[in-house]
Amino acid sequence: AIERTLSIIKPDATKRNLTGKINAKFEEAGLRIVAQKRIQLTMEQAGKFYEVHKERPFYGELCEFMASEPVVVQVLEGEGAIAKNREVMGATNPAEADEGTIRKEYALSVGENSVHGSDAPETAAEEISFFFSGLEIVG
Ligand code: CMP
């Protein structure tokens, strides 16, 4: 089925001017960028977005990192977009990511791992509506 997923190009990647190279990976995989904006998250917004990780030891560090520099938030659309995006991103830890994936090529560490992607249809819907209104998504 055609799906939509929420993607974030993280501060380590925007800082190194990698937005275009990362977008090329998505487009080469057949994912369409149907919404996109560059924003800088506040600590409060980052904390809310990552609320599910609140009890994890890395939560504070994660929120500070996500608020440290601009991010590019986007909606990717395509056949099986949620799983396809996770394939293109590669494993969370770049040391475990497959050749050719975004994280293998660009991520610096498990924290500074260049991209985020929704992990399931329910979280994709929630995460998309966290950042975008229906009018901002043009399929
Ligand atoms: P993401 O897909 O954005 O969702 C949660 C993030 O937490 C994850 O990517 C990682 O960047 C981050 N994360 C996971 N494990 C660790 C860790 N051990 N130390 C720091 N950050 C982590």
UniProtKB/TrEMBL annotation:
Reactions it catalyzes: a 2'-deoxyribonucleoside 5'-diphosphate + ATP = a 2'-deoxyribonucleoside 5'-triphosphate + ADP; a ribonucleoside 5'-diphosphate + ATP = a ribonucleoside 5'-triphosphate + ADP
Keywords recorded for this protein, A-Z: ATP-binding, Cytoplasm, Kinase, Magnesium, Metal-binding, Nucleotide metabolism, Nucleotide-binding, Phosphoprotein, Transferase
Localisation per UniProt entry: Cytoplasm
A Pfam family assignment: NDK
InterPro entries named among the record's database cross-references: NDK-like_dom (IPR034907), NDK-like_dom_sf (IPR036850), Nucleoside_diP_kinase (IPR001564), Nucleoside_diP_kinase_AS (IPR023005)
Nucleoside diphosphate kinase-like domain: residues covered: 2-139
EC number: 2.7.4.6
Keyword ATP-binding: yes
Named cofactor requirement(s): Mg(2+)
Molecular functions per Gene Ontology: kinase activity
Gene3D superfamilies documented for this protein: Nucleoside diphosphate kinase-like domain
Keyword presence, Metal-binding: yes
Binding site for ATP: 10, 58, 86, 92, 103, 113
Active-site residues, as the UniProt record annotates them: 116 (pros-phosphohistidine intermediate)
Top-level taxon in the UniProt lineage: Bacteria
Family designation: Belongs to the NDK family.
Subunit structure: Homotetramer.
Protein name: Nucleoside diphosphate kinase
UniProt lineage: Bacteria, Pseudomonadati, Pseudomonadota, Alphaproteobacteria, Rhodobacterales
